[in-house]
Amino acid sequence: MPRIGLTPDRVAEAAAALLDSAGEDALTLSRLAAELGVKAPSLYNHIDGMDDLRRRIAMRGIGDLAEALRSAVLGRSGADALHHLAAAYRRYAQDHPGVYPLTQETRPDDEEYATLGLRAIEPVLAVLRGAGVPEEERIHAARALRSSLHGFVELERCGGFGLDVDIDASYEYLIDSASRAIRRDD
User: Fold this and answer.
1) Taking the model in full, what pTM does it have?
2) Quick check: 128 and 183 in contact, CB under 8 A?
3) CA separation for the pair 176, 107 (Å, rounded)
């Protein structure tokens, strides 16, 4: 019988918190069960194993990231929208160091997952549309922007910036460069 109050969403929430606080190596079903005060086999009443759990964590993360990006650009346009979008992206990666990598995975055969993933790209496409990027170039521009943002936050996450230069200033430089590259309203 499932433990009262324990649901698949609650299990995924606890797993996400464990990932963010202790890292990927710490995410085991036995440790998660201990965090939740149950025995590991009890988790199977709520999830279908580690793959299902990782999918649930990723979906939560993608939904949260999509909402953060949407909120960041709401009521903004142009370079201001891009700067706020980029700041929200970086903040999400910093605040969720364990979950963030899972938001970067694709699952083309999973329609629910793919649909949710589209929610995360909608704010990006809106910013690009507002910057005047032609429709036929928007996906290319979105991929270039995502690659830039992800590359920066991933390097930052793994300690890849060793020079004694302000990392925040470098991120602003990246966003200013991206803004100049995509601006089409001249």
Assistant:
1) 0.91
2) no
3) 32
